[in-house]
């Protein structure tokens, strides 16, 4: 479809925690994907990590089967449960997704996808590591030079980073850079938090739901304006 520059639209499906095909969350994911498959105005669907509850190859193969034939691009990042086996080998081998971190320009917006988990030791040991920090700083500097707005995709808040000085450094980089929105998972709740410059948005879990019904967030960035709205499955469009 014809799109204006500096406009991004995507759907955010919360942490899946997939285990088996017979579990409720696998069936819920199928329903969510069916609901979204005709939404051609969306640039992609975002999965924020904790895709496989135990990080096993079998659980990732289940995710691949559920995504098979889905017509929209799907972007997937890592969460702590994806590291439960000790590394991200099954995540990359089975999902065949790009190596994190990476940058992609969509609708004139620079989208930055980060790995908070691979550089750590597992569990809540969230880290970016020196190379990824340098990469992030370079990407934000380049976006500033080109006058591009950015959206950052990471599993949790910068405050959860455990590397020496990482929490403060990343929060400062995001706040001082051209970042309008940071999309996260991990919390299992719908949360919107603003630091005076950047909106942080977390989406309700799909696989370990702790509030309300299952659903997804519809997110747009239109120039400087951010729209974020959660829809439970029974809700009607638009």
Provide a descriptive summary of the structure in words:
The protein has 238 residues and is α/β, with parallel strands linked by helices. The chain contains 5 helices and 11 strands. The chain has helices at 24-36, 57-67, 89-95, 129-145, 166-176; strands at residues 7-12, 44-47, 74-76, 102-106, 109-113, 150-153, 179-184, 191-194, 199-202, 215-222, 225-232. The strands form 2 sheets. Strands 4-5-6-7-9-8 form a 6-stranded mixed sheet, covered by helices on one side. Strands 3-2-1-10-11 form a 5-stranded mixed sheet, with no helix packed on it. Helix 1 packs parallel to helix 2 (57-67), helix 2 packs parallel to helix 3 (89-95) and helix 4 packs parallel to helix 5. The longest helix is centred in the middle third of the chain and has 17 residues, at 129-145. The radius of gyration is 17 Å and the shape is globular. The mean pLDDT is 94.
Summarize the structure in short.
The protein has 238 residues and is α/β, with parallel strands linked by helices.
Give the integer mean of the pLDDT values: 94
Our Rg estimate from Cα atoms comes to 17 Å
Structural class: alpha/beta
Low-confidence segments: none
Instruction: Give the CA-CA distance, first to last residue.
Output: 18 Å
**Structure annotation, total helices:** 5
Shape: globular
The order of strands across the largest sheet is: 4-5-6-7-9-8
How many strands, which pairing sense, and closed or not: the largest β-sheet? 6 strands, mixed
Percent strand: 15-25%
E-strand count: 11
Summarize the amount of helix as a percent range. Answer: 10-25%
Q: Give the H and E element order.
A: EHEHEHEEHEHEEEEE
């Amino acid at each position: 479809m014809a799109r204006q520059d500096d406009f991004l639209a995507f759907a955010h499906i919360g942490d899946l925690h997939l285990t088996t095909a017979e579990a409720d969350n696998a069936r819920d994911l199928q329903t969510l994907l069916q609901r979204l498959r005709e939404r051609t105005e969306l640039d992609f669907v975002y999965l924020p990590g904790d895709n496989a509850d135990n990080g096993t190859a079998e659980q990732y193969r289940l995710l691949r089967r559920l995504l098979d034939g889905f017509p929209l691009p799907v972007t997937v990042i890592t969460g702590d449960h994806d590291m439960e086996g000790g590394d991200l080998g099954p995540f990359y081998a089975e999902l065949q997704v790009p190596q994190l971190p990476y940058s992609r320009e969509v609708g004139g917006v620079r989208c930055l996808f980060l790995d908070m988990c691979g550089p750590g030791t597992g569990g809540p040991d969230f880290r970016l590591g020196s190379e990824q920090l340098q990469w992030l700083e370079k990407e934000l500097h380049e976006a500033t030079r080109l006058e591009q707005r950015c959206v950052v995709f990471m599993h949790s808040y910068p405050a959860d980073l455990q590397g020496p000085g990482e929490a403060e450094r990343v929060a400062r980089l995001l706040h001082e850079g051209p970042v309008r929105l940071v999309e996260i998972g991990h919390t299992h709740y719908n949360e919107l938090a603003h630091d005076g410059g950047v909106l942080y948005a977390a989406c309700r879990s799909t696989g370990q739901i702790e509030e309300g019904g299952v659903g997804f967030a519809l997110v747009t960035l239109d120039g400087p304006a951010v729209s974020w709205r959660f829809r439970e499955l029974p809700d009607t469009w638009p």
